[in-house]
Amino acid sequence: MLIACVQSDVTFADPAANLNRVLAWMETAAEKKKDCATEEADVVVFPECMLTGYAFGSRQHALEVALEIDDPIFQKLGQAARQWGQFVTLGFLESAAGRLYNSAVLIGPDGVVGCYRKIHLPHLGVDRFVDRGDQPYQTFAAATPRRGRAQIGLAICYDASFPEPIRVLGLAGADIIALGTNWPVEAARTAQIVPSARSLENHLYFAAANRVGHENGFDFCGLSSICGPDGVVLAATDGDQETMLLAEIDLAVARNKRIERTAGTHIIDRFADRRPEFYGSITEG
To answer: Which end of the chain is least crowded, N or C, by CB within 10 Å?
Structure first.
């Protein structure tokens, strides 16, 4: 498969303008297939709150911009996904039954595949006003006739600063973690360390798409990356320019958790070697 990781600016509080941005990037990802061995970009990962912006100063303003999951915007994205043969993950503010969530959605050729609501909330931007995610971590299937079925785990920004969510997704069979982020410049060290660490811990692919630009007092650092099993950096940016990262991946590598570094004498399996009976304090309130 091919992963495309989009490092984009965002127009604050303007979903229509951001939809056009996303559609243009999806077309760019499809054009990139000419330079790759694979036929097309199978998974395209966008930043947190890509459709709506992030640095809101009140819950009310955020609710005015928030989208319901059946909004026509997602139908248009599904049509584009079908046209280009892609699965797309991107962030948005979700309105649902009077509540407000910082959400990420996975969209494929047949429309919305699944949605995740951010569970770990920092005291930052719109996360000061949203409701905490109310659904457990789970993986979603991105299935194509050519590539078979890839399991994608969705997480958002601050989630990845905790090892537990990514491990839960790994245990659920995730081949790829798609992390949309809005890391400001103060979080540059997080952007440089966390993706590689989480991919190494769980022996899977980790695509971190951070935004760039300036929004209501925040400057975003970029530094997006795609990391492979064992923490190998497959593609990364070194700054805050708009760009797209590409990496060809092999799902079989992520699924083989048994790493034989030296035949018969040095074998690591970070899933089989766990001792969860000693981890009880992790889940204590």
So the answer is: C
